[in-house]
Amino acid sequence: MPDLQPNSEDLRVKLVISYDGTNYLGWQRQRLHRETIQETLENSLKKLFGRPVLLHGSGRTDTGVHAWAQVAHFDPPSSIERIHIIKAINRFSPQDIVVQEAYLAPREFHSLHSAVGKLYRYRILNRPYRCPLRRAYTTWIPQPLDLERLQEFATHLQGEHDFKSFQSAGSNVKSTVRTLFSASWQRIGSDEIHFLVHGSGFLKQMVRNLVGTMVALTLRKEPPRRLTEILLALDRREALKSAPPQGLVLERVYYSPELDKKCRKLYE
Amino acid sequence: MPDLQPNSEDLRVKLVISYDGTNYLGWQRQRLHRETIQETLENSLKKLFGRPVLLHGSGRTDTGVHAWAQVAHFDPPSSIERIHIIKAINRFSPQDIVVQEAYLAPREFHSLHSAVGKLYRYRILNRPYRCPLRRAYTTWIPQPLDLERLQEFATHLQGEHDFKSFQSAGSNVKSTVRTLFSASWQRIGSDEIHFLVHGSGFLKQMVRNLVGTMVALTLRKEPPRRLTEILLALDRREALKSAPPQGLVLERVYYSPELDKKCRKLYE
To answer: Quick one: A144 and A246 in the same domain?
Structure first.
């Protein structure tokens, strides 16, 4: 057990959280107490500490989108010296939301503002008929997909671009410029094709809009420049339809190595 | 479209079926119309043909157990010349039951009596905390499992044995002797351990009883001969607890190469 400073103003806890988004209206707390991941976890923290605790996530995930390692932080309102924080939160939470890791973080750590990148995975099931065992975690496309063509499109996305064409309505960010450090399609097993994308940040439904567009262009056998044209148009109406949410997983949120070093794992 | 002989007495259809067993009381039709895979599919066939159709499975799977490739057959009561049988059955079925393949089979083919072997997979999630994305398809064991020890136990199970100690109550088979052609544990990815077992046939809950016993013996660091003692005792009370159903998947049912050759794929 690390030596914590109970009630210290410096106390901040970083959590790594997995969730099945199927039954939630996304991460972000909403008015009218709809079912969201954030509110569910805040309720667990409230039960644990006996008073309201704000939980800050690294960003929203949409309705139905999953996470393998979403990051969030909170400042405990009282000593956590005697609490196995992971087990305690999980005990108060439903089985589709599970804390995997907990760290004692410095006060400068902020799950959203300190994030320097995110890794998303989009899983497509590419076989003639549906798979009942993967129906909640993949998007089924029966037409055979040309992996090489998909990869050509993905290559054109890498680097710094204005991704305005791939931002869904209802967002209010200052800049729509983002950097994709890597974007690649991979065949996984005999019948899955995954899109893995690591970027500095992502606009609203950007991954799903990119996947939906790349898949549509591939099925139509369009040339790679077609994607560049859509990108340069800076107009959402140019992008093709958005891929459904259940295939998307937030796989990792990155912070600087310096900040990672200052976070101390609370439990194995 | 193959040239079928409509209304011929020789017409038999072999189906390969995937299902998520979570919401079903197993394969086998029951009195009082409880939710089973067999009854659900027979209802689909009834809608398709306008009259009752019997569907014969290769064997039962228990409540909550999944299948990637269960095999079943039926004799269509009318011509199927103009029916895309896979799409038609799937259209009438819920999304957790999906026909993957359909064959025109000779009348000598019988999903149960012709079967010469089955392959089962049991998935254990071996990590400190649960994974919400795999909770319906794995059994969570937080204590680190010794793969080598598990494999030593499995090696002792291979070959022909009387598996009476691993048969759950409520079964009425003539012989409890079965042959395991292979039985092995594998590490899959960073946090899963799978038991793959290919046998001539399996007794009631045999795979789950074998897995539950091997895992318990491994956690207690028992020597390999302990499993042999349990096997030789021919007494169910000697075996340790049964592993839960959601980790189990029926992966394949085998028939003789001669019979496979006589089955003609109806659709890709």
So the answer is: yes
Domain shared by A107 and A126, yes or no: no
Best mutation target, B130, B134, B265, to test chain A (most A CBs within 10 A): B130
Q: List pLDDT tens digits, range A231-242.
A: 999 988 887 889
Q: How far apart are CA A253 and CA A20, in angstroms?
A: 17
- A96 noted as active-site residue: no
Which pLDDT score is estimated for A81?
Answer: 84
A123 strand-pairing partners: A194
Q: Where are the alpha helices (DSSP H) in chain A?
A: 37-49, 85-92, 147-155, 206-219, 225-233, 257-262
Number of domains, chain A: 2
Q: Which domain holds residue B123?
A: 117-251
DSSP B191-205: TEEEEEEEES---TT
What pLDDT shows up at residue A3? 46
Q: Which of A68, A95, A130 sits opposite B95 (nearest CB)?
A: A130
Burial label for A266, CB within 10 Å (0-12, 13-18, 19+), is buried
Distance from CA of B268 to the nearest CA of A (A): 7
> Would residue B30 count as lying in a domain?
yes
**Of B74, B44, B220, B46, the residue nearest B143 (C-alpha):** B220
In one letter, which amino acid is A8? Answer: S
Residue identified by tokens 């503002």 is A113
Residues 6 or more apart whose CB falls under 8 angstroms from that of A85 comprise A13, A99, A102, A266, A267
- On whether residue B6 sits in a domain, the answer given is no
Smallest CA-to-CA distance from A161 within A61, A233, A250, A242 is with A233
What integer is the mean pLDDT of A168-195?
A: 94
pTM exceeding the 0.90 threshold for the entire prediction: yes
Domain final residue pick, A114, A143, A177? A114
Strands A139-140 and B264-265: unpaired
Rounded to the nearest angstrom, the minimum Cα separation between A249 and chain B is 10
Domain boundary among A94, A114, A134: A114
Mean pLDDT across A102-127: 97
Residue labelled with tokens 């793969």 = B147
Complete DSSP assignment for A155-209? HTT-EEEE-GGGPPSS---S--EEEEEEEEEEEETTTEEEEEEEES---TTHHHH
A225-233 and A206-219 are packed helices; what angle lies between their axes, rounded to 10 degrees? 140
